[in-house]
Design goal:
The chain has 252 residues and is α/β, with parallel strands linked by helices. The protein has 2 domains: 105 residues, no CATH class; 124 residues, Rossmann fold. 54% of the residues lie in helices and 9% in strands. It is built from 9 helices and 4 strands, in the order H-H-H-H-H-E-H-E-H-E-H-E-H. Helix 8 links the parallel strand 3 and strand 4. The longest helix is centred in the first third of the chain and has 29 residues.
């Protein structure tokens, strides 16, 4: 986040300095006017960044939280990806940072919804690979054999009376969101799918939880059930507990 802010300041300075000589030849006041405009843009950007940082650190429900989340999703994250490539940073590390920041912003909004307006969205890879039961259309088809966490996740959804669905990819996930029209989503997936899902569903808030991959990506993955339940408690009305962890968890 700090690197991004410095990068924006550096870019603004270059945009002013490079044409400085040419603009002065056109009119003596043009360099000053350009500098003033860029100073306003930099002040606006830094002010927004500081507000974002304070929101993350304090966890307070500031009045621009949703707009701050939109700035992170639409502008800062793509810029972070570019900077990550330039500095040789691992793309998944950048994505994990983005998910963690997004989660803090979503939590700071302090949005509470009715159970029927909350959706748990799961990846198909959580299902045991030898299971022949089709659960993408209806997760209630699960036979509760206990060989994967689907059984426990269904039990959680019934306990808190929330919707739960399994998606095989981004297209199906988007269709599920359109059909169910949730006001809050708790999403479980890998770094890539979570970041794309958070971006695709904005402005609907998504609380992201990274899956665990003991056997590699997209194969018999796992999830920390306590993180899912903490998310449910945090965002459901009539639940007054705070989640213990703001981290999306790291894959194992």
């Amino acid at each position: 986040m700090i690197i991004t802010c410095f990068a924006l300041v550096a870019i603004a300075f270059l945009l002013w300095w490079v044409p400085y000589v040419g603009l002065k030849n056109i009119h003596p006041a043009l360099p000053f006017i350009l500098a003033l405009c860029l100073a306003v843009l930099v002040a606006f950007g830094l002010g927004g960044a500081l507000t974002l940082i304070f929101t993350i650190l304090w966890g307070k429900n500031l009045f621009i939280n949703q707009k701050a989340r939109g700035v992170v999703i639409r502008f800062l994250f793509p810029l972070l990806i570019v900077l990550g490539k330039l500095f040789g940073m691992n793309k998944d590390e950048v994505r994990r940072s983005f998910i963690a920041v997004n989660n803090r912003l979503v939590l700071s909004e302090a949005k509470k919804v009715r159970p029927e307006k909350l959706l748990i969205l799961l990846p198909h890879c959580l299902q045991f690979h030898e299971c022949v039961v089709r659960i993408t259309g209806n997760i209630e088809n699960c036979k509760s054999c206990g060989k994967c966490k689907i059984k426990d996740l269904v039990a959680l959804s019934k306990k808190y009376r929330v919707s739960i669905s399994v998606a095989t990819g981004g297209t199906l996930a988007r269709r599920i969101v359109v059909e169910t029209r949730p006001e809050m989503i708790i999403g479980v997936a890998c770094e890539r799918d979570l970041t794309s899902g958070i971006q695709d569903t904005y402005p609907i808030p998504v609380y992201g939880i990274l899956n665990k991959r003991p056997f590699g990506p997209c194969f018999d993955t796992d999830v920390d059930l306590s993180l899912v339940e903490e998310g449910l408690i945090a965002f459901l009305k009539n639940e007054d507990h705070k989640p213990k962890s703001l981290s999306p968890s790291r894959p194992q």
